[in-house]
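If your schedule permits, I should be very grateful for your opinion on a structural question. What I wish to show you is a protein chain and, alongside it, a tokenised description of its three-dimensional fold. Would you kindly read the sequence against the tokens and tell me how you understand this chain to fold? Here, with my thanks, is the record as I have it:

===
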Amino acid sequence: MSETTKKVIIGAGVGASLLALYYLIRGKPTVQQSLNNIKIVSQYRLITDNMRSITDIIIILKETKTQYINLAFARITPIPEKCSDLPQNEQNNCNIYGDSFERLINAVSVIKASIPDIIIGGSVSAEFLNPECRNEETGEAFTKDQTWNMALDPGKWGIPTTKEDFQTSVAVSHGWAVQGQPYDPKNQMPFYFPDQSNPDYQDLFLSWVKRQIDCGITSILIDINTKQAKLMAELTGNINHISVKDAFAGASQIVDRIHEYGASFNIKTNVISWATNILLNSPYRLPRLDAVMTTPSTQEIETLTMDEAKWDAYIAGIRTKMGNVPIFVMFDQGPDYRPLEAFSQKLTIDQANQFLRIIDSFCKAKGMVFIYPIHGGIMGSAPTILSYNSYNWYDSLAPEFSTFETIKQLANG
């Protein structure tokens, strides 16, 4: 029995034992389980939430012949082993979203038992460091003082901007603070912006990734592992500044360590991140990503038209810098105005189904893979159209959207 299987059994009880049993019978995923030949990717965020049963999710995955589930699990805030471990007032949300390792292990074990070769993807954010969090491998808790020491400080490279001013600027950009008004970032920020070149932060970040791998996740989307480099290039006005170089080095080290962790158990652990402009213009060694992520613009969605010249230049840049890595295209989502909000809130049902056909055909013609938006992702900060008139997360089967039949046709076409 592998050390990972032992940790899973110890870490989460009955669900873990199911996954361990699966691994003992079938063995860990092999190095052949890469993203290179994946043609059908579906977003189902999250496989742990309470909208439908795992049995119904499996039916959906089979009907669409899904080979890879994008964002099946996502870590932004600390994840408990079980929802019941949380204070009473936090348990309801945990149960709604299924944000626990117990639920993840149960979901993965049942899905993998029914669809053994499917790749299940998780995600971790590289721009949000919780002021109070824990190492999710060891359980070690970190105080605000400890995590503040991992927050990005431009002064580390002699840049004449204080840590407090930099972190406050990040808070302003997210709407957590108002420009020019007094703000105490250490004590008021809901998330610090971390320093990926800090070894302590790397270890902490890796614990969040490793715990998902221990639960059966074999692909990780890092959101966004080049943001630090971008901010340092903007702050210094110099892409060749040492702070930018160190940011890329830190991002690369994290990706390498994820690969190494999976390889130690004979697992092909795929790492994906966004194909950002700073990534494609970097003069430094790039993180060894197994695939890159991108998104259509809100304008393309609203006009039902893909900007071919823009995409041709973009794809050429990816191929020049990163070779023949898979390019996945998804509807980006967030609290501000993002593509998923445009798709779900601005288009009629007929227009949405039409755009799915347009973007799927376009991606296939350009050698990219469109990620079918089956379930999940928030539709802005205050959407007027909700799934089942209740949920602020997209669902293709909801009567308000009714895109699943088109997705199924495209996947089977």
In short: The domain at 3-294 is CATH 3.20.20 (TIM Barrel). The first strand starts at residue 41 and ends at 44.
